[in-house]
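It is worth pausing here to work through a concrete case rather than discussing structure prediction in the abstract. The textbook approach is simple: state the sequence, then state the predicted structure, then interpret. We follow exactly that order.
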Amino acid sequence: MTGDGKQPRERGLSAWTTRRWLRGGVAISLAVLALLGTTGGWILTRTETLVKELVDVRSPALTTATRLESAVLNQETGIRGYGLTGTPDFLAPYREGLAEQETRTAQLSALLAGDRAALADLGTVRDAVAVWQERIARPVAASQPGAPSPLAAERATEGKEAFDAVRAALGEQQERLRVESVRTQKDLMVMIDVRNWVFGSIAVLILVLTVLIFEGLRRGINEPLDRLGADARAIARGDFDHPITPSGPADLRRLGEEIDSMRRRLVRELAFTEEARMRLDAQAADLQRSNAELEQFAYVASHDLQEPLRKVSSFTQLLQRRYGGQLDSRADQYIDFAVDGANRMQVLINDLLDFSRVGRLHNAHQSVDLDEVLERTLSSLSVGIEEAGAVITHDPLPALVADPTQMGMLWQNLIGNAVKFRRPDEVPRIHVTAAREGALWRFTVTDNGIGISPEYADKVFVIFQRLHTKDVYSGSGIGLAMCKKIVEFHGGAIAVDTEYREGARITFTLAPEPPETAVPAVVPQAVPSATEQAR
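Step two, the predicted structure:
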């Protein structure tokens, strides 16, 4: 590190990252391949040009020159025979030779276009043939048939010299064409050898380049990554003191340093976590003691507290029966207050005990047919349902793995609330539905009662919270709080459908099987008084 605490800047090739190495390697490889490809392309083009020149020019030109010579020889044979005999049949080869001469000459002119030397040879041949034809062939052919031509005998020596000149010109032409054809063949063979050597070199270079690339990747990337992976696996197996040695390109070294920094931080975090775990164990022990005290409180509330409460209630009821009407109206009112308060305290204690037992005493999960549970609940509420004239319907309900007692308490509170909070001038109608929603079942309990305002949609699930006074609707305000606790204990959620305006609609979800860890039961703190508005 430098004096200011910063890491020293890496220089040269050691500062190259993996991306830079890859870019450099790819650039060099592409440059070499481009050079080889250009060379190979030029060689292929040159080979193709030579093949085309040999096949399309040199060989056809030599063949055509030979045929041109044959045509001229046919003319000479015909003229010589006609001049010696005067027989017209000898003129046929002469005329055919003339036609073929014109054809072959035109072909040679086309084939040798651009070759000045060859075209000059062709011009020499054409001139020599023209001299021979003008001095010998045409005059002899114009002689009268039937007798030897006197002109042939007179110009025999001249004719021989003229045709020797034709033969010499044809020979020089063919020799030049033959030499050019041989040269082209040699050039082609040389180019084929060069092509084979170059493409062999390209193959070797590509092979060497491939080996270099793979070796570079192995040494520069694979091996550093393997070492980094081995160090990481050692740390993952629990050896947090195992150091990470960075290697390879700059970015891989930085990655190794960052992982090692994370390892050191993890060691510190583990030490902190271990200390926190020890504190948590101590808190868990305190929580166990607190739960034991809560259990003791539940026992006391269910036995010791209820016994004096029953005495207070009994004696106040005795006072009401014995002295009712004998004292003044204020005394009767006080006695009524005492009896009502004792009875409500009895209900609150019983409801509070039921609330605290959810998930603690009632925790026997088994397959439960919710149709049967609902029917038993309706049977237990039959008196209140008949008095209200309520009409209760439901869709087919599924079977879940749940606590049957808690499911009964859930239906009892939801159906009981729907019946209780009905409209005075309307027949209560309650409908229960169930539908699969992903991994959960969604249930709804819909009624046509007085409904729940949206601003109280959350408040109704708080324990002891009421929306009406006890004079209007009876109850302790613990029913929906108990429903919320039961639903959450079974891995679901419960809420009020604020979009429904024709009454109240409670919707909740339940898991087909309960979650692995149950929410521990805790006795809630009953802070609101009985005079608060709650449901």
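Step three, interpretation. Confidence is low (pLDDT under 50) at residues 1-8, 518-535. The two ends are 70 Å apart (CA to CA).
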